[in-house]
Amino acid sequence: MSPTQRLTSSHSTPLNDPLSPKTAATEEKSQQRPIPGQRSPGAPPSPAPPVKTTVTKDFSFLLRPEIYHSINPVNIPAAFRNSSKQPPADASLEDLLAKGHFRAAAIAAVQELTATGSPERPRVDPADHQRIFSLLYTRLACLTLIDATSIAAQEVRALEDLNAGVYIDETTGEHLVPWELRVLNVRLQALGFSDPRRSVMSYHDLAREAREQISKATIRHDNSARELWKARLTDLGIHVTGALIEMDDLAGAARHLSTLKDRGDGKMALSRALLWLHLGDTEAARRSVQDSGEDGKHAERVITALCQMADGDYDAALQSWQDLKGGVADEMVGVNLAVCLLYTGKLTEARSVFEDMVNTGYSSHTLLFNLSTTYELCTERNRNLKLGLVEKVADLDETPRGWEKNNADFKL
């Protein structure tokens, strides 16, 4: 797997964007080749302001315990399972998310939905759609973060058709389901029904709604609402491209990618460049970030370094990452620097860079996987080194980016 294939989602993290190609790929068997870095996941984004409605609807069909699956901790290393950092049973959902306990948060969300937890977690009111959908989003997003996307794809089926009348406020015509959950639902439904084309059509439906909302906001001179919906429309464009790539429709993805407009903040240029890298077109990736202004200078340097890696010019890429590392403290930069050291034969230096990042507090899957691969290259007796790494990471402070790891992170 090339560096370009691995970095399309380095700008977006699973919980920020559980729809990215990386999310589904996390459950696939990891390859042996070291992989470039990605930022660690952050806490779930706050949902948009909920729709206010006087209509009372019964959503008890989403509260049935049989919908939800148990989460087996067998793949969690003992150092994490037995750690004093494991949260108490009555920990609030907010605290669990703030400390990166995503598995516990997924369990807690279901306990509140189904009234199967402690008295401190009473069952949600079947008519409280705001709380129900918030809990569902937390559950599904957290499942994608703990490499349980297949479970999320099964559970999301309970929502069935989100265009059904039960999800619409008949008085205002507004959708009762938060936008974040609707977007996440598209991807998971496509996975659950093994129908990737379903996601492309559903994204286009959401895009049509976004354009309508932009027009309405413009008419009533609501600038904040207009910008919100423009941002959502832009994100949908990226998701459509990612879905086309997963369908192996690379020509369609390239055509669609060329139609996406930059909103002036440089984010689209960076996203476009990363997607071109995924498609293997380094020249198009470079063009995407050219003339992006002073604000986009860092992104241009990152894309240049990634293109050098994709072209196999690891010596030049190494120099580029070293220059970048001197100006920013970024895990992605450090991981790619170490990968370049590996490919230029500097195994000891690469190991040192990886270990220094762990000692600093970084612990993304990409960092741990690459360090574990480095241990395998260093010695045949690498298991003890990996177990020592497990202990070290388990001792790290909790963080919204995620604390608990699984065996796959350490190649155990």
The unreliable regions are 1-47
Strand content: under 5%
- CA distance, first residue to last residue: 20 Å
Helix percent reads 55-70%
> How large is the count of helical segments?
19
Sum up the overall morphology in one term.
globular
Say what oligomer this is: single chain
Largest sheet: none
Number of strands: 0
From the alpha-carbon coordinates, what is the Rg to the nearest angstrom? Answer: 22 Å
On the 0 to 100 scale, the average pLDDT is 85
Helix-strand sequence: HHHHHHHHHHHHHHHHHHH
Structural class: mainly alpha
InterPro entries: TPR-like_helical_dom_sf (IPR011990)
Biased composition (Polar residues): 1-15
GO cellular component, one term: TRAPP complex
Organism: Colletotrichum tanaceti
Tell me about this structure.
The protein has helices spanning 3-6, 21-25, 78-81, 93-98, 102-114, 129-145, 149-155, 179-192, 196-219, 223-246, 250-259, 267-279, 282-289, 297-310, 314-325, 331-343, 347-360, 365-378, 383-394. It is 55% helix and 0% strand. The protein has a domain at 55-193. The protein is built from 19 helices and no strands. It is globular, with a radius of gyration of 22 Å. Residues 1-53 are annotated as: Disordered.
